[in-house]
UniProtKB/TrEMBL annotation, chain A:
Bilayer disposition of the protein: Multi-pass membrane protein
CDD domains: TM_PBP1_LivM_like (cd06581)
Transmembrane segments annotated in the record for this chain: 12-32, 44-66, 92-109, 115-137, 144-163, 169-189, 261-279, 313-336, 348-375, 382-400
Entry annotated with the keyword Transmembrane: yes
Name of the protein in its database record: High-affinity branched-chain amino acid ABC transporter permease LivM
Lineage of producing organism: Bacteria, Pseudomonadati, Pseudomonadota, Alphaproteobacteria, Hyphomicrobiales
Entry keywords, A to Z: Cell membrane, Membrane, Transmembrane, Transmembrane helix
Gene name of the record: livM
Natural source organism: Shinella curvata
From TrEMBL, chain B:
Gene3D superfamilies attached to this UniProt entry: P-loop containing nucleotide triphosphate hydrolases
A Pfam cross-reference name: ABC_tran
Name of the protein in its database record: ATP-binding cassette domain-containing protein
Originating organism: Shinella curvata
Start and end residues of each ABC transporter domain: 6-265
Amino acid sequence: MQTNRLLTLAKQALLTFTVSLILFAPISGLVLEGFSFRNELTRAVLLAALVAAGRVALSLVGMTAIGRKIAGKAASNGSGVTVMTGKEKSPALILGLIFLAGLSLPFFADKYFLGIAILALIYCLLGLGLNIVVGLAGLLDLGFVAFYAVGAYLLALGAQYLGLGFWSALIIAPFLAGLCGMVLAFPVLKMHGDYLAIVTLGFGEIIRLVLNNWLEFTGGPNGASVPPPTLFGLEFTRTAKQGGVPLHDYFGIAYSADYKFWFIYLVLFLVVCLVVYAVERLRVMPLGRMWEALREDEIACRSLGVNHVFTKLTAFMLGASTGGLAGVFFAVHQGFVNPTSFTFFESALILAIVVLGGLGSTVGVIAAALVLTILPELLRDFAEYRVLVFGVLMVVMMIWKPRGLVRVQRPAFFPSTAVKGAGTAPLSASPEAVR
Amino acid sequence: MNTPLLDVRNVTMRFGGIVANRNVSFSVERGGVTALIGPNGAGKTTMFNCITGFYRASEGQILLDGPNGPQDIGTLITKPITGGSHLVTRAGIARTFQNIRLFKEMSVVENLLVAQHLVTANNLVSGVLRTPAFRRAEREAVDRAYHWLGEMNLTDDANRLAGELPYGRQRRLEIARAMCTGPKLICLDEPAAGLNPSETRELSEVIQRLCKEHGQTVLVIEHDMGLVMRISDHVVVLDHGEVISDGTPEHVGNDPAVIAAYLGVSEEEVEK
């Protein structure tokens, strides 16, 4: 028994050592010097030994009672979806506290942290939007950043050519982005899975290339500037530039550049809350149910009379609208947009947020958006390894929690009391009769 | 009552050079159980897919009797832009599948609610704002879902995931889901496949109850002859894509052509 264990441990260690040696030898064992290279194999061996030791330590922990407990826990929650019992406590109190905490954040945070919070909320919006498309409707969209760009450029170019302000852009952006979503989606929605992903990837690149190359209209790589926001004609700049009154003059307080960020943060926070509410409602609405049903089985949906093309179209349009909203906030926060903000990496990041959070889970997506935007800021010291850390995080998540951070919970439904009282009341079989 | 609910007239279905159904004609009477039987590969499921709008028949007509007179299923599928098999369901034909197709990661009630999407309020604004009309429609839909769960003895499983249910209950759930669309005709594709004898008995009771209590018209494909003979009023036998016998269960059971098709007697012997 004892020797058996030792043998397996030795085997594991040897295997890990060999594999990591193969991986590390070319990367850290050979150092380039001009046209020749220098051997630093001891470094690679050391690294490999470290990895092997880590593997053995993991196995040893796994053999103890505590380790087994942890492993058992990790294995048991792999099943993913559960249905609520209908007896859960209402989360209204916690939600209210979070809402108040969110509203009061600007009064505690400094400018740097507020900037991160705005960025995190923008990614929340993007994640929620993509979650409608990927998580609920099950359509893999790799070009989501295109709708983000549409929203951002709407404000920048609209201000330049049509004199649009922040508020009008905020209202127009969802419709314009939704329209773009419809234009893209209508011809491609008969495709499935991988093909759809490639078409949307192409669409994302098309938008970026157009923005980059249409010099006269978009300003090309030089980008376009975005006017600062206003509030009922009050401006947040030191002196009025858009024909209004500066905020600090109106209230008779000292000027601070922070007011603008306070304003953006508060509006963005309210918009995020509204979108979260709408998405949560959607999940118990017929439209949201049809999206999820389409994700589960398209043929069965058609057999139930669901128009699969139109249903997918609505998912695409609503997702795109949310992306457009996020774009407006991004533009007004940066004060400047150019095409480098809308690369494929951005799309991949948003998709990572949705996948990490758990497909279809609103809480998960918000948590993942916060983690994935705040973590890189905390990891400033390791800036060069940021993508590496992302990658490791992804791998670890996919091994331990393949269904995402937060489990999806399905709502429970109960018959109305009238029916309960009358036992099985004779209800009409045909829906027409109820209309 | 003179016009049959569903009238299949001279339907031929070709896949390239292969003829799956040749000149098939039969009718489904209102309020009864019609069974479509035949050996494997006889073209039953193809016929089914034509009727439920998943295939467009190459030739012939499939007429569903409605309030505005008979309606051709084929024209619904080929309607430009909005056309498709979903219109066939909306016209009143619901179906189940040979290999169960439930929404496995949704709860049982939700499965039934998706089926009622035509009567619930699909308006985005009313749903987000929870208007009284929206809530009433939802409540009625949930009650109707519970009604059908009760009919299928599934009430206890209402708030479980559909994928967790045992096989036999998944079968019944699929029937309940099809019934929730409020169909004139329900098409069951091998409902007893994979069921044990007691589950099969339960299923035949369910189907008979659908007919007797709800006046539902049923079209069923089935291999279990015991079940077919017990529940059906009218049997149509297909072999090699053609109708070889059509009539009451007794008539079909004694038809030499049917016996030959099932037992594999050579054609010369049948002609003698």
